[in-house]
Structure formats: C-alpha cells, structure tokens
Design goal:
The protein is of the alpha+beta class. The protein is 21% helix and 62% strand. The protein has helices at residues 5-21, 158-177, and strands spanning 25-34, 37-46, 49-57, 64-77, 79-99, 102-121, 124-135, 143-157.
Amino acid sequence: MMIQPAVLALLLHCGSCFSLCAQSYFTTGGIRLGSDYGISLKQLILKRTTLEMIVSTDDQAKTNLGLCLLAAQHKPILTRNLNIFYGAGLAWNWQVEDLPEGLVKRTLFGIPVQAGLEFKVGRINFSWDYTPVLYISTKSNAFDSLKGLTVRYVFLNRKEGKRLVKQLKSIITTRKGK
C-alpha cells in the first residue's frame, strides 16, 4: 500500500507539532509492569543521557527483590518525544528460596543491557524495554530476560530542571565566595 504524499506530509506536520508543543523531561518516576514489576525513577543527566533506578520484584514478591541502575542514551525518532534508547548498568537481586534443607538466601550481581522505545505526551512518559541480565556472581552464570512497560509522571520538565540546576549552581558559588 502506497502512502499518499498529502497523508505523509500531514503525519510529519503532526509529529513536528508534538515536538514543538510538548516538553522534554528532566525527572520522571512511576510504575513498571511486565516480567517484573516495581517502581522506576529516571533522571536526565546530559542532553540525551539518562540514569534510571528500578526497584522491582516478580510474582514471588515475598522472596525476591531487585535493584537495577542503568545509564541510557536516547535517539529521537521523528520528534524528541518519541525515541529509542539503549544502555547498560548494574543489577542486584536478593532471593530467598524454600528448599528441602531449609531457607536459602542468595544475592545475585549482574550486568543488564537495555534497549527500548519511549514516548512522552504532556506530563506522562511511556516506555517499553527489553533488558537481558547476565548474573556473574553465580557459578551457573544465571541469565534473566526482562521485558516491561513503564508509565512515569514527569515531575520536572527540561525547562524546570534547567532552572533548578541554575539556582543550585548560584547557591554553591555564593557559598564558595564567603
């Protein structure tokens, strides 16, 4: 099926309106649902680079807790509010297993690699990601494959974040001068 030039022009125009009207985020936080579920906090640290902290559990919430710290690079698609991202980080997983010989506690340490798609509209940020984790602290080199949809609220947009950083820098330089 061929897309008519007029339809393509309309789609590109609508995409550019989103880019001009919508605001980029600086700090977001929300819930994560998927093969694991929990909370996510994401902070913009450079123009297209974010740090994310995910605290999660799986369907065995009483016996499993995870912490994942990720740095990601974002690349816009059509607008700055629709982008792909990829990155890596560190992951810890604390597990309690009920085996015949008793409760066994394990701490796993691993390296997650993440890739996904992110869309922001207004103050709501949606992202879907695939995050394989290779746990290197176990003898069996456990591998986990996580997929998730995260819905976050934009606490600070880019403009508000820049203003906050400017105020903090001003306070710090004022105190150094005394």
